[in-house]
Amino acid sequence: MKVSEYAKHLLLAGSLEDKLLPPSRQWEEETEFTSIRMEAPGRSPKFQFSDKKVKIPRLEHLNLQSNRGLSLHHFANHELMAIELFAWALLAFPDAPRSVRNGFLKTIEEEQTHLKLYLNRMRDFGIDFGDIPLNYIFWKQLGQFKTLESFSAVMSISFEGANLDYAQIYAQVFSYFGDHLTSDIMITIFEDEVKHVKRGLRAFERSIPENGNHWDHYLSLIQFPFTPRRAKGYLYLPETRSLAGMNSAFIQSLGDYQDEYTGRVNLESVKKFGLGERILRKNRLDS
Ligand SMILES: [Fe+2]
Ligand SMILES: [Fe+2]
């Protein structure tokens, strides 16, 4: 199989089993180098995009298994979109450096692992994927994915970056409620997402003009109404961005960024759950 054929399979075949087909270890030589920009993924009827708004449960309500299941369903949807969009990028950017394309394949494989982790755990909570409407927030950004750099700025630095905050927040809250199994899943995913942000940074940084400013360059790659707000959780954990190798001035600028949504979230839960007091890591007991 060629990488492009594999990417088309992930994008166009509709079942979860298809979306979970792992990348091959060996690829046939690519012969097609024209950029293909698919407008939407193929999906079975149960997994179609929906515009219905679904509220995600409040952190204080995660003592209930059903609410944990709803939250995981929401995260699983992000993983599915990530699988599809990294496949999209393989087709859209055939000229990307080989290291970047190999990174996309590795990322796809890890997103597939994340999706499986969520699917299995959700079923323990009585929820199956597609039981609840699926938003398509990542797919809505297609218009911004003009170049490899803007794709990385939106997908990796922004969405996957924000996920570093959220994975920590949820790992800490699940653990607070005594659900260590789900908390560990969040930490496993956190560790992979650190690598994903790192990969995205590599693609982004190679496009920064000499002596250019990382933050200004990032701003030049994203388009309003998408703003840097998307690149962080409602609680920002700068230490997680250092782990991903983000430039310290960039980490600071992202922390300083404010808009009309800043401060709207009730941060009582920050106090209640002790969120952000420490960063949970894999193998934390032996470090
Ligand atoms: Fe993921
Ligand atoms: Fe990721």
TrEMBL record:
Domain of life: Bacteria
CDD domains, alphabetized: Ferritin_like
One Pfam family, short name: DUF455
Protein's name in the database: DUF455 family protein
